[in-house]
């Protein structure tokens, strides 16, 4: 069961999406929420602060979500961090690439609050 | 108008008058300046309209989640949803322009008997391919959440 105050980093270049994901996470009881607008900023934050979950978009510049995921999995200090991809990229090749790169789960945009909860439950257990 | 290196003219093509008419129909001054520029303005305005509406809807939703379930909140959400009409009208203008441009370019290609040649991949196209940056799928083409879940099992 995840702690309500576990730090969660939401990465998306659309502020609106960050607001939506933060709002849904708050409704699920999570209180310790942070944000980054692309993979580069996210990686900087991950290397200076501790997070127990990353929820990231795919299509961002200058560093995409898949590049962020690969960087996280290649970094011995970060590689165990659970990572959920949440993206409008909905081709088989995207899902396969995310799985191969080590994503814990994949959410297709537009998504439901229930889908977000299910993916968190699948990593941390029910809450 | 400059010649595109990826198109090669067939010397045995249509009469010169047809070709000239097809080129004139593109009306570069109007299409390239006024109409394409206008379409870009419409797209930028559509993006801003949607951003404003979504901001308002999110603010109202947050207020409702905080306990304010007054009728005014629901009405504000309905008002913000009027963005569908406005954005729809803006996109209709852009759709019409693209359809017209497509028709006129097809006429030009036909009149000049142009044949497409393979183009070299640009660096940004290569990056998009290598990083699977496809963007949202076309309607009925993308995977559903259930499809993605099956692939992840």
TrEMBL record, chain A:
InterPro entries: Bact_response_regulator, CheY-like_superfamily, Sig_transdc_resp-reg_receiver. Transmembrane segments: none annotated. Residues 7-124 form the Response regulatory domain. One of its GO terms (biological process) is phosphorelay signal transduction system. SMART domains: REC (SM00448). The modification 4-aspartylphosphate is found at residue 57. The keyword Phosphoprotein applies. Keywords: Phosphoprotein. SUPFAM superfamilies: CheY-like. It comes from the Bacteria. Pfam families: Response_reg. This is Chemotaxis protein cheY. It comes from Caulobacter vibrioides (strain NA1000 / CB15N).
């Amino acid at each position: 069961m995840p702690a309500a105050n576990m730090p969660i980093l939401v990465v998306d270049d659309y502020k609106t999406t960050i607001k939506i994901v933060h709002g849904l996470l708050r409704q699920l009881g999570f209180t310790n929420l942070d944000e980054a607008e692309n993979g580069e900023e996210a990686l900087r934050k991950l290397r200076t602060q501790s997070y127990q979950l990353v929820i990231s978009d795919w299509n961002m510049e200058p560093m995409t979500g898949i590049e962020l995921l690969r960087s996280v999995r290649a970094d011995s200090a970060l590689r165990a961090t659970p990572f959920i991809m949440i993206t409008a990229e909905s081709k088989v090749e995207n899902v396969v690439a995310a799985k191969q790169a080590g994503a814990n789960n994949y959410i297709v945009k537009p998504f439901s609050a229930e889908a977000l909860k299910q993916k968190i439950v699948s990593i941390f257990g029910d809450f | 108008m400059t010649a595109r290196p990826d198109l090669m003219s067939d010397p045995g093509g249509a009469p010169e008058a047809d070709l000239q008419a097809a080129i004139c129909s593109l009306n570069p001054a109007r299409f390239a300046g006024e109409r394409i520029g206008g379409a870009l303005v419409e797209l930028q305005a559509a993006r801003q309209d949607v951003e404003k509406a979504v901001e308002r809807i999110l603010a109202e939703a947050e207020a409702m989640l905080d306990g304010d379930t007054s009728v005014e909140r629901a009405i504000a959400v309905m008002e913000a949803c009027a963005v569908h009409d406005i954005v729809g009208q803006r996109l209709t203008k852009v759709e019409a322009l693209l359809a017209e441009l497509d028709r006129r370019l097809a006429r030009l290609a036909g009149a000049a008997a142009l044949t497409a040649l393979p183009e070299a991949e640009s660096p940004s196209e290569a990056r998009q391919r290598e990083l699977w940056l496809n963007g949202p799928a076309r309607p009925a083409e993308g995977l559903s959440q259930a499809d993605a879940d099956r692939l992840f099992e």
